Every structure is written in structure tokens, then in C-alpha cells.
Amino acid sequence: MEAHTIVLGVIGSDCHAVGNKILEAFFSDRGFRVINLGVMVSQDEFIDAAIETGAAAILVSSLYGHGEIDCAGFRDRCIERGVGDIILYVGGNLVIGKHDPAEVETLYRSMGYDRIFGPDADLDAVADLLACDCAAKAVPTGTSR
Amino acid sequence: MEAHTIVLGVIGSDCHAVGNKILEAFFSDRGFRVINLGVMVSQDEFIDAAIETGAAAILVSSLYGHGEIDCAGFRDRCIERGVGDIILYVGGNLVIGKHDPAEVETLYRSMGYDRIFGPDADLDAVADLLACDCAAKAVPTGTSR
Amino acid sequence: MTFHDAPLSRHDFTAQQSDVRASWPTGADVDFAESIRFHQGRDASLNMASVLRQADARGAVLIQPRAGVALLSEHIRLLTFLQDHCDLLPTTIDAYTRQNRYEEAQKGVERSREAGHSLLNGFPAVNHGVAGCREVVESLSKPVQVRHGTPDARLLAEITLAAGFSSYEGGGVSYNIPYTKDVPLERSLRNWQYVDRLVGMYEDEGVRINREPFGPLSGTLVPPCISHTVGLIEGLLALQQGVRSITLGYGQAGSYVQDIAALQSLRDLGHEFFTNAGHTDYELTTVFHQWMGGFPESEARAFGVIAWGATAAALARATKVIVKTPHEAMGIPTMEANRQGLEATRQVINMLSDQPPLDTPEIQAEADRIKSEVRAIMTRVAELGSGSLVDGTVRAFEAGVIDVPFAPSKHNRGKLLPVRDLDGAVRIFEPGNVPFPAEVMEFHRARVADRARHENRPPCFQMVIDDIYAVSKGNLVGRPR
Amino acid sequence: MTFHDAPLSRHDFTAQQSDVRASWPTGADVDFAESIRFHQGRDASLNMASVLRQADARGAVLIQPRAGVALLSEHIRLLTFLQDHCDLLPTTIDAYTRQNRYEEAQKGVERSREAGHSLLNGFPAVNHGVAGCREVVESLSKPVQVRHGTPDARLLAEITLAAGFSSYEGGGVSYNIPYTKDVPLERSLRNWQYVDRLVGMYEDEGVRINREPFGPLSGTLVPPCISHTVGLIEGLLALQQGVRSITLGYGQAGSYVQDIAALQSLRDLGHEFFTNAGHTDYELTTVFHQWMGGFPESEARAFGVIAWGATAAALARATKVIVKTPHEAMGIPTMEANRQGLEATRQVINMLSDQPPLDTPEIQAEADRIKSEVRAIMTRVAELGSGSLVDGTVRAFEAGVIDVPFAPSKHNRGKLLPVRDLDGAVRIFEPGNVPFPAEVMEFHRARVADRARHENRPPCFQMVIDDIYAVSKGNLVGRPR
Ligand code: B12
Ligand code: B12
Prior knowledge:
- The complex is a heterotetramer, with 2 copies of chain A and 2 copies of chain C.
- Chain A is of the alpha/beta class.
- Helices cover 41% and strands 17% of the residues of chain A.
- Chain A has one domain: Rossmann fold (3-Layer(aba) Sandwich), CATH 3.40.50.
- Chain A contains 6 helices and 5 strands.
- Chain A has a 5-stranded parallel β-sheet, sandwiched between helices.
- Chain A starts with a strand and ends in a 7-residue tail after the last helix.
- Chain C folds into 2 domains: 10-352, Methylmalonyl-CoA mutase (TIM Barrel, Alpha-Beta Barrel), CATH 3.20.20.240; 415-481, Glutamate mutase, C-terminal domain (Alpha-Beta Complex), CATH 3.90.970.
- In chain C, the strands form 2 sheets. An 8-stranded parallel β-sheet of chain C has the order 1-8-7-6-5-4-3-2. Chain C has a two-stranded antiparallel ribbon with strand order 9-10.
- Chains in contact: A-D, B-C, C-D.
- The complex binds cobalamin (B12) (2 copies).
- One cobalamin sits between chains B (13-19, 22-23, 59, 61, 63-65, 89-93, 96-97, 117, 119, 121, 123, 126) and C (66, 92, 95, 98, 121-122, 149, 178-179, 216, 218-220, 292-295, 327-329, 331-332, 406-408, 468).
């Protein structure tokens, strides 16, 4: 089976690099083809890379608290750019302050993210989900997500 | 002015001696005549001592959590024994667990204690109150408390 | 220095036993033979002595909470919750049971049932009887210890050990002097000989029950030499009755030099006195109690005190730590507060247990001083007892040779006064009749004088009071305002 | 080793200044003469340099939180609340301002106003301008510092110092390499020369502004020699521009031997390099950052980490400690969580500050090792710079002679790999091009090999990853599962 391509990066003005380096190592190890854009990545840079590499998914990180601002409108932008059905994951410390994860999930789901993870995400479980989601996407169906 | 006599002790099966020793030293220093019964004092022992010494007030300590059981009915017993109008103070860790001080106050007020103090009682303030209460009691009035 | 107190004879023991078991209805249910079978059928991981021995060999520092509530089902729920966060489990006994006031304990159980929450400050094990206690033990997957404060703990021991508890805290001094007002020392010592002999009988049947003298005593500025002496006496008395697993305890003073020295010297002295008394076949471990004096009310500050206790315990490699909670100043902790104390402690101990234990020349000097103090006191105890440790101990307390600060008991002289020095170590301000070696007393005096000079006041009782309040007010040394 | 980088000339400075002040409308409000008068009119207790100097003389350990929110009134409320619980105040700047993205910061302010709570991760000081910042400073009764992470911090400095802040964190390396992706090092170094010169101009007028290089860098397994080297470089660059009060920083590694050694050696090296470079008239203090890596999510465990940081800081007598909070793993702390971190820290520091600072032969050996590493790296920096510290630093990063682990910047080699040893100290697994002295590198290798043997796996990247997660998972060393 061919490896699924995923684009990885930390959005906005966010400099938190450690988790990003670990995610790169981890997903590569789990058999994904990882395009890592590092820190301080804009929405368009993510989308450019996804288009260029035919990626199945974009994994957005936001740690520093401005996620609510930086991540808004990402799905709409994907649609505008013609990759509206790309898989969008987001994870990290997604809002300012300590909040109920369920609230955070609702907020980001309303922005169009498919799956939302806190800083305690179990990466093995994430990789399993991602593999399934990518596989499902690879099977052409009549209905869109 | 003559020194007010007060009876001091730790009620029930309670062995906490440190606060009691400090209270003895403190109230003596503040000019009270202190009859200290130490730890593990029963209601009747308190009352016996108060009657014997003509004390104006009984200061009950309870630290170990059984206060709710040990302290109940003290005012009634004072009435039975003919010293119903003695000043009754109680202080310490008066219930099991960490509770709202206001609740504890209500509980002990309903048992007939005049003033109720937590473990953080400001002793200087207590001594001032006690002096006032004793003085007020010394002045015979028509109404009982 | 040898002591010849004999093990309780089978005859004496049996004579007492029937009275003891008859002193409350649940005593009738004790079945020694059945309980030996029960203990023998249990996994070694459920036996306190075994778990401590292994931890000691690995250099691990185990953690244990305090916990006990009135009702059986609640108590089981509490311990089941806590066992995921600790290594060793307690069952803390309520204060009526500690005074053998089982009727009042019963009333407490009933009122707690009505109130829907515990009105007792511990678990009334005697009232719940062997079957109830057995249910506790069988619900849990860690060793369980009885923690109390009972001068006459014979019935409690009969019932809880029969139920399957594998460790029993206390001793004839440490569960009398700080816990009672007027129980003669000789009586509590004799009653604890019974308990130790009972443990020895389990030992005779191949079941090892751990015994732990209560180290902190009054929890308030206790000089290490005092609590060490008491621990050694209770350890020796236990060994005399056939106990084989002993955990010597110490309550944190707050000075890291003193605390680490105290734990080191406690272990050294234990081996010294036990082997000198001819014992070879015993297991010695140590327990460090996080700060036993008044706590700050602020939970955040309490966490600071808890973590500092965990630090000292880890740097000294105590075998286990008894853990406080952020509710300490206020009342019996909720389950959740108890868990928090354990988690904070665990985090510190984990981070420290890979690191080297701490030792410095200052710590060695302090340990040497503690040892010379303890040897001096024990020598007097031996002289006073002329061969009997029980007699020696009773006379030592009468004479004030052993003197526990701030203890409520009439049988304690209460003339010794401790105070902190400039570095925060607990020193002797007024020695009373405790036979400190002259040069050591010189040292204490000089240290206290240093502090007095620094604070511009004579050494005085107010200084001691300030020290008593200091930790709860956010410091270690009680400086004048 | 001498460096001849010149102070920015008045001409160069002024030329930049007009552009800087014009880069956002609020820049126009800076009035240097007025601000000098303002600073001069203030009590010494409000000046960071003065308060640090006095603490250092007394051997006191001060505490400081991090805190900043989007809206002015909220920010003042926050700091007014915190000042009762700490000694020194911060104003943490939001991440848009750090990147000079003032439009986005403005949007953040507006959206925060609408939302009724802060959507920014700090206080956008440039947007609030001199008057807003002045209001902050005047509302408070403790010295206030600007804490940020800004490679081009010229306008922020102009505005905040004019407003009355008396301390400014950062430097051309420490606020570039860990905080950016692609800002050339030479550019940030030049921009920070401007900031330092500005501080020098305050100094020329008799107003002392404290400067603090950011010690922790990426906060993740940074070997002390790396962060010390960066601190010394930024200290020297600041002194060259006329700064006189310097606080060198260090982020806790977690090993007490290493942390105490690091703080000792940092102070010693500061004096060594500063006086060797001909500076005499300066004040040097130190700051210890509580654990800067990933925190445990459990608040109780976080308290454990916080208290352990406080312990190391107190035992090493850092001049100040930057305090974390029990919310660290989750998000910007509430006011209340911030207070809790401060209280726990204060309790530990108070209890420890009467006690002797810790020193052992192991600590001395570790400190000597750190010193020899730093001297080796600095010697290469000097060679590469042939007289210019700016050039030397730029070339050292190009060559990987200085290499910050886990930094996001392209201008950092990222070849050095750290890993913990068996005792928990951070060691060098892969040195990259950092010129470690041969015998020191031998030591690191041996220590890492020891651990690998002990864990039955080769030294590998997974070991490093395990170490990164370790503290957040409740340990120090990342053992294989
Ligand atoms: C030291 C201590 C002990 C020592 C006591 C030694 C001794 N003989 O004195 C030892 C270790 C023996 C001990 C035993 C027990 N303790 Co205890 N102990 C403490 C501790 C840590 C400090 C008490 C102390 O000395 N404080 C210093 C003095 C100066 O303060 P104080 O006692 O509070 O007294 C002051 C005030 O309360 C006030 N005050 C007191 N009385 C009065 C009266 C009046 C009228 C006024 C105005 C003021 C006033 O003024 C005093 C002077 O400032 C407290 C917790 C804490 N405070 O941090 C727990 C605590 C009191 N103990 C507690 C318990 C439960 C016990 C035990 C039952 C064991 C157990 N289950 O954990 C046994 C008691 C057995 C018995 N029969 O009583 C609980 C009580 C729980 C509750 N109320 O919900 C506490 C609160 C700990 C806890 N959070 O669980 N304890
Ligand atoms: C180290 C650190 C720093 C270092 C970063 C160095 C570097 N360049 O990497 C420094 C000191 C420079 C720093 C700076 C700042 N930081 Co910072 N930092 C941390 C800290 C302590 C650890 C981060 C870390 O490395 N963790 C270890 C890695 C392995 O975990 P991780 O980053 O969480 O990543 C994992 C998960 O989140 C998850 N994940 C992440 N993304 C994704 C995406 C997907 C799809 C999935 C499935 C999973 C996933 O998997 C990753 C791997 O396990 C955290 C708090 C914490 N976690 O304890 C704060 C924290 C992230 N920082 C914070 C802030 C605010 C800042 C600053 C703005 C300063 C400030 N105001 O305090 C600046 C940021 C400036 C900027 N431009 O970005 C806040 C964010 C607040 C919020 N969201 O409410 C935090 C939470 C601290 C706090 N409680 O205030 N920081």
C-alpha cells in the first residue's frame, strides 16, 4: 500500500517547535509521508503544500493560544482553493486558558476541522484514526464528507 | 479591675494539646485568670470547674473532628446545672472535613454557643471580645442573654 | 546495654486474651487459625513487610496516605479510589475507638449513616468486626496498615490482624504520651507487649506482620533524639516479643540538614541497638512523615509544604513517606484532596529518585550529634531499668530523662523546651532533665544564643510559640514581627 | 578574549529611531526627556535594578510570575491582584506583537473586547501605547518588567521604557533562535544593540534599567553550557552598549546537582567574562526559571514540579525565580492559578531561605565542567569573530559551534542532541559541531552509555523523546516502558 501524504505545521505566529518535531518523527515512523512545514505557517502555506504534494490530510498545530484567531476560516479557504474535501486535523493548546475539551471541540468543529485533539492526544490512536480517514477518502464515493 | 475567670479545655476524646497550651499562655498574658483543664475534658468537668471557680466563661476547643458529637447539648447541660447564662465560646476544627465557616457557625450557634471560631482565629480579637462579653455579663440586667 | 524483659508467657497472654476478646462483642469472631490460613493464602504483594523489604532493597521510596471514615462501604470506596495513587494503604482509626469507647463509636456510625457522611474521624474497626475488616482487606490490591493512636490496642490488633491487615502502627510510648492525658505508661507498655506478642505469634506461624512505632509523637518541634529514643525502645520491645519487621519513623522538622541526618541516624541507631541487644533476624525500614505540625490554610501553600516533605524524604531515601493533603489545616481531607497530596508527592519523589541521595559533612555532623544524644539517653534508660526496658522507660519518663515537648500526658514531664536555630534546625532551649552530653548541650545553647542575638530578644517562650506557628504562617523559623 | 564591537553611534541610533517610532502610530508619543523625569521621580522600590541589587546583597530569593492579557483594564486588574503575592511584576507581551504584527494584535484587542475575555496570549503594549503602559506602571507598587520573545523589539522598548517599565527581557540570540523561523541572526543582534543602546541612554541620564537575557531558550533539555554561552554573549553585548544591570538566566533542568552547579557557574562565568572584557561598573544578578518544558496536566503534579523548582532556586540562592502555575500544561493561567503558583513557591522559598545553600563536591565538579565547556565555546566564538562579538556569534551559529536543541530557527544547526543520564542530568548525546573539550565529551559519552546499558537499549532518538515527555508523565528520566 502506498503511504498517505500528510502536511504538518504550526499555524500563525506560533514558535512552539518541540511537539512539531516529535509529530514529524512519529508519523514518519508510522508509515506516513510527512511534509513538515515547521512553525509559523500560514493557512495558504499549508494549502499550497497540500496541493503540491497531493496530500490527503493537513495536521495543524496551535499551542500558543491564538488558535481561535489563526485557525478560523481554514476549511472555507480550502474550499476556495479547490481542496475542500481534504482531511483537516487540529491539535495542541487550542484556546487561551484551561477550558473544557468538549467546548473546544465544538468550537473547532464549527470551523470545519474533522478531528480535534488536546495536548494530551494519544498519538498511536491518532495515527490509527488518520490511517482510516485517509483510506476512506481514497475510496471514491458518491457522497462528500 | 478584677481578672475575669475563664475555663479552658479540649472536649471529648481529643488529645490535641498544642493549641490548648498556647491559649493558656495567651489568655493569662492578656490578664484573664485561666483554669486550664487540658485535653480530653467532658462537658461536666467543664461545668464543675466553672461552678467551682465562679468562671464567667467556658472556652471549649475541639480539633479532632468529633466536635459535632461532643459539643452538642452543652448549653442545655449548663442550664440543667444552673449556670445557663455562662458565656460559651468554642473554637478549632469544629467539624469533620473542610467546610464553609458560615455553616459551621450556624451549626454551633444552634447548640447554644455564643461565639464560634475557626482554627485561624485572631486571638487578640478574641480576647477583646471576651473581655467585653465578660464585662457585659458582670453588669446585672433584667434580661437574660 | 542489654535488657531482659521476657516475652509474654503463653499463660499470661491467654489469660489476657479472653478478657480482651470479651471486651466488645465483635471480639468473639476472632479465629486465629483461620486468619493464619488467610494470610498464608495471600500474595506477597499484599504483605506490608514483604513490600517494604523489596522497596528497601531497590532504594525505592513508597508513598502512603492517611484515610478512614465511619461506614464500611464508604471506607472501601475511599481506599479503592486511593490505591491507584499510592503504594501502601492505611486504615486510620477514629478517636473513640482509640480510647476503647466503642459505644460512642457505634453512635458515631449510626449518626453517620443518618447524616449520609462520616461524623467520625476514622474507621471504627472494632465495631465493624473481623468480617467488616476482612471485606476491606479483600477489596484492595495493596498492603493495608492499621494507623491509630491507641494506648490499649489489644482488641483492635486481635480483630484487624485476624481480618488480614499486615501492618500495625504504634507502641506503648508513642501511642500513649502524645495521645492521652492520664494512662500510666507501664500500663500502655504492658498492653503493647501483648500486641507485639500477638504479632510474634503470627510470626511463629510464618506470617510476617510489620510493626511501626509512631515517630512524630506530638508533631511539634520534637528533637530527633527524643523521637529516635522512643522508636528504639518500641523497636526493642517489639523484637523481644518476636516481631521481625520493624519500620522506624520520624516526623519532618523542616531543616533538610537535620531531616536527612535524622533519617540516616535512625537507621544506623536501629541496627546498632538491635544487634547490640542480640537481635539478628529482623528487617528494618524507615518511614518519613511529611510535616506533622500546623499547616498553612492556603491549599497552594500546603502543596509547598507537602512537596518539601517529599523532597527531604527522597533525598534521604526513606523507605516510605506518610503523605499530607492540601486540606490539612482545615479538616479530614476529601478523597480528591487526598489524591492531590499523593500526586504532588509522587511527582517529586519520581523526579528525585533517579538523583543521588544527599549527603554533606554538615549532615554527617548532625547525624553524629543525634547519635551521641540518643546513646546518652539510652544509657540512662538502661541504668534506670537495671535490665528491664519497660521499667527503664517508665522511670525515664518519671525522671524527665525522656521528655516529649507539648505532649498532653501527665506522665510526661514537659520540662524540655525546643526552639529553632537560625538555620531552622530544632535545638534544645531548655533541656529539662534529659541527659544531653555536655558538649552537645553547649552546641545547642550556642545555636539558640545565635538566633536570640540575631532577633534581638532573649531566648523565650514567645520564640517557641512563634516557631509553632511559623510553618502555618508561611515560614520555618518564627521571627518576631 | 576581547571584543571590540562599538556602541551604536548617536548618528546610527537616531537614524534608526525615526523609522522605529514611525513603524506604528503609538511610536510618536515617546518623549525621552519626559520619561527620564518620570523614572527619576519614582521611588527606588519601583526600580527593578535597585530591588534586585538589594535582594542580592541580602541573599534573598525574589519571586515573579508571568502575566499578560489583551485589554488594559483587565491587565491592570491582573497585576494589581498578583502584586500582593510576588516581589516583582511582569508584563508578558502577546505573540503578534512579538512578531511586530500590530494589526493582528489590534484585531485581537477588538475581538477580546467583544468576547469579554482575552483572546491574546499577552499584553499588546505597542498598541496600548505610552499612555496605556504608563497607566499600568502607575497602578502598581512593585517594579515591572517587559517579558516577551521579540527579535525586533526596538519599538516595544521605546514605548515601554518611556512608560516607566524598569526591566527588559531578551536578547538578539535568545529572542530569535527559540522564537522565530527565519530571522537572520545578524539582524536580531543589530536590533538588540539598539535596545541595549537605548537602555544605555537611560543609564547616561542616571536611570538604571535592568536587562535580562532569556536563559531557558527552547526550554527543552538545553545543556547549561549552551544557555550560559548565549547569556554571556548577550550580557557582553549589553555592556558594550552601556547597560549596567544584568540578570543572567537559567531554566531548570531538574537535576539538583546540575541546577545548583549551573546557577553557581553562571554567576562566576558572568564575572569572569565581564571583567575580562574590561567591564567593572556593572551589577550582576541571576534568575532561575522553574521547569520550562512540558508540564504534567494534573494540577497536583504541577504543584510538585513548581515546588521542586522553588527548592532548587532557594538552595542555589538565585536572585529571583520565574514561577509557573498549576495550569501550565493546559493554557494561560487564570489569576487564581497564577496566585497558587506564587504561593506554593513562596512557601518553599521561605522555608528554605533560612537554611544553608547547598554545596557538595559533586556540585563543584559539575560547575567546573560547565565552566570548561563554556570557555571552550566562547574561545571559538572569539576566534570566529576576530574581535567582533556580533560576527563571532553569527558565525558560531552558522558553524553549529553554538547549537540550541529543538529551536525552530533555520539559523540554528540543530545537530546537537541532549539526553539525560542515569542521575537525571542533561548530557550530550550527539555534540554536533559544538567544540566540547575532549575529556568533557568523554565524560558525557560515558554517562550516556551508562544509561543506555541500564535501559538495555542503544542511545537513540527515542530516548530523547522519552526524556522530553518524562516530566509531563511524572518522571525526570524517560525510561522505556
Ligand atoms: C499536631 C496534630 C496532631 C498531633 C497532636 C499532638 C498533641 N497531642 O497535641 C497528633 C499527631 C498526635 C494528632 C493526632 C490526631 N489528629 Co491531628 N492534627 C495535628 C495538626 C497537624 C496540628 C495541630 C496543632 O498543633 N496546631 C497548632 C495549634 C497552635 O493550632 P490549633 O491546634 O489549631 O489551635 C489554635 C486554633 O485552633 C484556635 N483554637 C483552638 N481552640 C480554640 C477555642 C477557642 C474558644 C478559640 C477562640 C480558639 C481556639 O486557637 C489555637 C491557638 O492558636 C492539625 C492540622 C493543622 N492544624 O495543621 C491536625 C488535625 C487537628 N488532626 C486531626 C485528626 C483527625 C487527628 C486524629 C484523629 C488522627 C487522624 N484521624 O488523622 C488524631 C487525634 C486523636 C485524638 N484522640 O485526638 C484533624 C482533625 C480533622 C477535622 N476536624 O476534620 C486535623 C485538622 C488534620 C486533618 N486535616 O485531618 N494530630
Ligand atoms: C516549551 C514551551 C515554550 C518554549 C518553546 C520553545 C520552542 N520554540 O519550541 C518557549 C519558552 C520559547 C515558549 C514561548 C511561548 N509560549 Co510556551 N510553552 C512551552 C511549554 C512549557 C511546553 C511545550 C512543549 O514543548 N511541550 C512538549 C511537546 C512534546 O508537547 P506539545 O507542544 O503540547 O505537542 C504535543 C501535543 O500538543 C500534540 N499536538 C500538537 N499539535 C498537534 C496537532 C495534531 C493534529 C495532533 C493530533 C496532536 C498535536 O502532540 C504533540 C506531541 O506530543 C507549554 C506548556 C506545557 N505543555 O507544559 C507552554 C505553552 C504552550 N506556551 C504558551 C505561551 C502563551 C507561550 C508564549 C506566548 C509566551 C507566554 N505568553 O507565556 C510564547 C510563544 C511565542 C510564540 N511566538 O509562539 C502557553 C499557551 C497558552 C494557551 N494556549 O492558553 C502554554 C500552554 C503555557 C501556558 N500555560 O501559558 N513556550
